[in-house]
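Hi R.,

Here are the chain sequences for the assembly we discussed:
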Amino acid sequence: MKPPDVSWSRTAAVIVWLAVKVVLFVLLGRIDTAQFVYAGF
Amino acid sequence: MGLHLEPTYWAVVIGVAVWLRIAPARGTTAFGAANAIALDLLCGPAVAVAGLTLATGLWAILALANGSRSWILNGFAYLLPVAAFLAYKTAGDWEAFRTAIPTAGPVPDAFWLLAALSFSYAFLRCLDAVRTVLAKGSPLLDPLGLAGYLFPFHMLLAGPIAGYDEYLKLNADGPEALRSDRIISAASDIATGLVYKHVCAEYLRVFLFGLDSPLASQGLIDTAGLFVYLFFDFAGYSRIALGVGTLMGVPTPVNFRAPFAARNVTDFFARWHMSLGGFVTRNIYVPLQLRLVRRFGVRRSVWVAFVSLLACWLFVGLWHRLSWRFAAYGAAFALIVWTEKLVLDRRWLRPARPGSGLAYVRRGLGMAYVFAVVTVMLHLVMGEILKP
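And here is the predicted structure of the full complex:
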């Protein structure tokens, strides 16, 4: 499969998406957070 | 095991990535040396010594058998890993895992720890190395490089299974330069893997089974939940390994490619645990199919394909666990995949026009069919998978 062409907009989108994943992991990726969220239900 | 949450792990990854770009030795030797240090830092010196010793043993057998016409030596090279694997499986891998962890100090215990952590995967890499060196004539690496292939620290627990020939590219091409696009790609894979494993899988586990309850299945709905949990856990681990491999420049295969979007079971296994599928295809299916077609002719290829698929699937089933239930699990999947092959090859189901309503309906039905079949099959072996 041909890799997509490199462009600034695509690079920016990839970096923003990467930042979203990092934030998700940092905020939620801890078992005590999971326990806290679970306790709220 | 939260290895990916340890700062030491990431310091080791960055150290190895830099070292491989400046090391004076050839790629596999440099990685083997770095990998031994990584195992020492992450699992203790005894595990590093155990890995090097096992790799040196395999190297000695391969060095003797390589170029020799003696079928005894060649057979010994194949049989030794198989015998070790059978002994390991018979001893009960989970039992070994539980008892080995707290006593990982002395070297004899370290062998158990290494086996419990990694032997199912190391066994497949052993077979791949033996076959590639003895049957295909690929070069035999030095013991250090071979240890790096058999026990790579970033693929230690659950694969993926890199092909021996793929790993050799580290010598031919060297680790790829760390350009910005590769760093972003690696970081993206690692971030996706961390979210899959430590957010998606973990939340699913907590919400399905409670905070401290063990994984359990009371019925098909629970198994369906476990199936999705298994995907996020395993695909997350594999994705982190892929990103780490990209960062270090060590060949690391893709292991999952949107398996829930598969249209049929055959397609599903081309997307789920792809490195195991690749191993089975190149080491069992292709050589066996070629041999059987030469022996029985192309006209019997339909039945020959069934025998080859049965051999592959029995291997996959028994590789998971040595039991009659897993043998039946493998045989049933062989039958399903063979039936699908018949339907597709003979065009009993005419393909729908791309973009038409029927194509979308079929796609949706195909995905539901795959999910249902795999869930039911998983349910049949769930008791053994979750057996403590």
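Residues 265-386 of chain B form one domain. Confidence is low (pLDDT under 50) at residues 101-108 of chain B.

Let me know if anything looks off.

Best,
T.
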